[in-house]
Write a structure and sequence with these properties.
239 residues; mainly alpha; transposase activity; Transposase IS116/IS110/IS902 C-terminal domain-containing protein; DNA binding
Length: 239
C-alpha cells in the first residue's frame, strides 16, 4: 500500500532538504551583512525564518543605504519566500504520510518528516528478506569483530543508507531524551556495561526492527510494537 507513495515522498523530502539548505545559507549571508552594518547587533538572536525576526531585521536595515544593505534586504525577502515554500512542502508531506502509515507515526519520536524520510528511502519494503536485511540496509546491524583480543565484540557499521540511518538516529535520540521504550532499553544497556555510543547503536537496532514491522504491516496494534522491546534475541545479544 505504501510503495506507490514512496517515490512521491522521496521527491518531497529531498525538495524540502534542498530548500532548508538554501535558506540556511541565505540566512548566514544576511546575518553577516547585518553584523557588518551594525556590529553591536548579536547575530544569534535573529531567527530569520520567523516573520517577527524578519521585521526586526528590516527595521535594523532601515537607516542603512548602499549595496550591503540592499543585498541584506533581498536576502531577507528570499528567506521569507523560502519559508513559505518549505511550509507548503511540509503540508504536502503530512497529507501523504498521515493516512498511509499511522503505525509508523505512532512511534515515539517519529514525526511526519522523519516518517516520510523512512518511507521514501525504504521504498518497496518487500525487497527486504527480513528485518535483519532491513537493518543492514539502514547501516544499523552490528558487525562482529574477530581477533585475538576482540572476539565477541561488535563494531559500528560504516555502510548502509545514511538517510535512513539518520532517520533512525532521530527517533532514537528523541526517545532517549524525552522518554519511551527506547530510553528504558538505553538505560538497561548502559547498566550492563555498554558505552554511550554502543547503547545508542543498540537502541537504533531495536528501532529499525520496530520500523520494519510498521512498514510491512502499517495497521497492526501497538501491543505488537511493544514486543519488539521485550527480551533479547538468543543468536545475537547485541540486538
Amino acid at each position: 500500500m505504501l510503495d506507490k507513495y514512496s517515490r512521491e515522498l522521496k521527491l518531497l523530502v529531498n525538495r524540502r532538504d534542498d530548500l532548508v539548505v538554501f535558506r540556511t545559507a541565505t540566512t548566514q549571508r544576511a546575518l553577516m551583512r547585518i553584523h557588518e552594518l551594525d556590529p553591536t547587533e548579536p547575530m544569534g538572536k535573529l531567527l530569520l525564518r520567523q516573520p517577527s525576526h524578519q521585521s526586526r531585521a528590516r527595521a535594523l536595515l532601515e537607516p542603512h543605504v548602499g549595496l550591503v544593505a540592499d543585498l541584506a534586504r533581498e536576502e531577507i525577502n528570499e528567506i521569507a519566500a523560502l519559508t513559505v515554500q518549505i511550509d507548503t512542502v511540509e503540508r504536502r508531506i503530512r497529507r501523504v504520510v498521515s493516512p498511509t502509515s499511522p503505525r509508523l507515526l505512532a512511534i515515539n519520536g517519529c514525526g511526519p518528516l522523519t516518517a516520510a524520510k523512512i518511507l521514501g528511502e525504504a521504498a518497496n519494503v518487500d525487497r527486504f528478506r527480513s528485518e535483519a536485511h532491513f537493518a543492514r540496509y539502514a547501516g544499523v546491524a552490528p558487525i562482529p569483530e574477530w581477533s585475538g583480543e576482540s572476539q565477541g565484540r561488535m563494531r559500528r557499521a560504516t555502510s548502509g543508507n545514511r538517510q535512513l540511518n539518520r532517520a533512525l538516529h532521530t527517533i532514537a535520540m528523541s526517545q532517549i531524551r524525552k522518554g519511551g521504550l527506547g530510553e528504558d532499553y538505553y538505560r538497561r544497556r548502559v547498566a550492563e556495561g555498554n558505552r554511550h555510543a554502543q547503547a545508542i547503536r543498540c537502541v537504533k537496532r531495536r528501532i529499525s526492527r520496530h520500523v520494519y514491522n510498521c512498514l510491512i504491516a502499517p495497521m497492526l496494534s501497538s501491543e505488537t510494537d511493544a514486543k519488539v522491546w521485550r527480551g533479547r534475541t538468543a543468536s545475537n545479544p547485541s540486538q
